[in-house]
Amino acid sequence: MHALSAHLKRSKGDFTLDIKVDFIQGITGVFGPSGAGKTTLMHLLVGLENPDQGYVKIEETILVDTFKNICEPTRNRKIGYVFQEGRLFPHMSVRKNLLFATKYIPKGQQVIEFEELVNLLELNNLLEKRPKQLSGGEKQRVAIGRALLSSPKLLLMDEPFSSLDVKLRRQIIPYLIKINRKFNIPMLVVSHDLPDLLSLTRELFLLKKGRVVGHGTYLDLLEQENMFELMRGGGLMNVIPFKVEKHDKKDGLTILSNKSASETISMEREMELDCCQIGDYVNLSLRPEDIALSLEKILNISIRNQLPGTIVKIIQQDSRNYCLVDVGFKLLVSITHASLLKMELAENKKVWCLFKSMALQTNF
Amino acid sequence: MEDWYVFSEAEMSAIGLSFKVALWCAILVLPIATLIGWWLARKNFRGKAFIEGFINLPLVLPPVATGFILLLLLGTKGLIGHWLNELFGIRIAFTYYAALIASMIVSFPLAVRAIRLSIEMVDPGFEEAAKTLGASTFQSFIRVSLPLALPGIISGFILSFARSLGEFGATIIFAGNISGETQTIPLALFNQIQMPGMESSAFRLLLVAVLFSFLAMAFSEYLVKKLHRSN
């Protein structure tokens, strides 16, 4: 059963949007440059704009079907929408903002409890404040909480990071992961920042000029010629899932491992990951520039992570060169043209990928 | 000779009537002007300029002309008036209700203007957010835009109150100048000025008119400032 399935067409002046999306569960990212139609897509899903033609279905409920003349008004759609700018009601306290939607939900049908949500999003000390007294990150959390308390079947987030500065933007990520895990609400997150999106999910829809030009996991998309170009604009990043093995409370360390690589990668991290349960997977990111290639294993070196693999593809874009190396999963490695020639790198060649554990970023 | 500051019975009745008409006028105009103001601020439709022009007509039309139009429509022999009279025996012209209607018509565009401007200042995005949270259009207006536009709505209320206090032209044509029934402060003042020897009475009415108008405007300013601070 699809959490969401929709096909929407809409023309506005020169711009035509024709988008088909469906996904099952979890967090799905929608990535595209500005002007690709991301916000229009959100507005069509939530009912702030109407399509010229198409349908929207959530689970088995038809919300829009232009052929059957069905078009549920926004208030009946049960889609939570976190606006780019938050749009908290300035005349209400945080508590009243959060409780705004609960008036419209019949008793007993409230899916998420107020207390539970306030604890999860750490809003306890903010409840009596006015929105203008909040920081950007706090506003964003309140906006997410307010949308969740409307008991939505789907949560849409429009650029949840863009109104936050670099330091704050990644702080919102663990909250989103917690929400998705705890309440099992499918989420569609729109962003023009690829690393931000990738720290949430690897399932992506790529949008360009009002069309879906790619759909799938990040690495599958990277292999496609035209996708690479599009995604490079948003910042390229390797995202590697790690399993949380152990919290060592005494030393304040968390031990993580990845066994899908050609050699097990294990590493220790300080307690920044203590919000994760043992057995959970966290996505760590690794910049293509932080990986070195070697033709053999190097013994006398401080870099412990050395993964043997095969070059799947060499991508040459403008003056930059990238190797896509299969080390059990695919790694994107940035390399200079000189090295490419000197090492005689080619597809199917065996190489070792070297990187320091410290280059793996948790993003939060 | 009477002391100059003692109000006569006719003057007291003019003051009381003025106050009553102005208050009812402001109360009745408020909900209609709020709805129309919201409609004009939020909706775009064909013929909007025409509707706006029609609503604003009493603002530029000589009040005497407005009164005359009202008389033509609602007078005992008027277009609607004769029908009301024949079917229900209702007579409006030259009664208290005529004074009230004349006041409402002339103060309506002022109230709509103030309310509309303040609603236009409220980001329509807040209403959109309310709708995604399950509110209907009406509920999102009542719970979000209305409180945010409250200073403008209050000033709309007070403007129509104040305009009604000063209303003369439309009232004298449509409601007449009947002491105790339709004679408000401006009409009484007009009477006294015309009659020799009534200067002190005119002066008393003048003072009351100035005082009322000043208090209404000062109160409006105070409320708007207070609301701005609390938001």
UniProtKB/TrEMBL annotation, chain A:
Keywords: ATP-binding, Cell inner membrane, Cell membrane, Membrane, Molybdenum, Nucleotide-binding, Translocase, Transport. One of its GO terms (molecular function) is ATP hydrolysis activity. Residues 1-234 form the ABC transporter domain. Residues 300-364 form the Mop domain. GO terms for cellular component: membrane. PROSITE patterns: ABC_TRANSPORTER_1, ABC_TRANSPORTER_2, MOP. It holds the Pfam family TOBE. NCBIfam families: modC_ABC. This is Molybdenum ABC transporter ATP-binding protein. It comes from Labilibaculum filiforme.
TrEMBL record, chain B:
It is found in: Cell membrane. The chain crosses the membrane at residues 21-41, 53-74, 94-112, 141-162, 202-224. It is a multi-pass membrane protein. Belongs to the binding-protein-dependent transport system permease family. CysTW subfamily. Residues 15-216 form the ABC transmembrane type-1 domain. InterPro entries: MetI-like, MetI-like_sf, ModB_ABC. This is Molybdenum transport system permease. Part of the binding-protein-dependent transport system for molybdenum; probably responsible for the translocation of the substrate across the membrane. Keywords: Cell membrane, Membrane, Molybdenum, Transmembrane, Transmembrane helix, Transport. The keyword ATP-binding does not apply. One of its GO terms (cellular component) is plasma membrane. It holds the Pfam family BPD_transp_1.
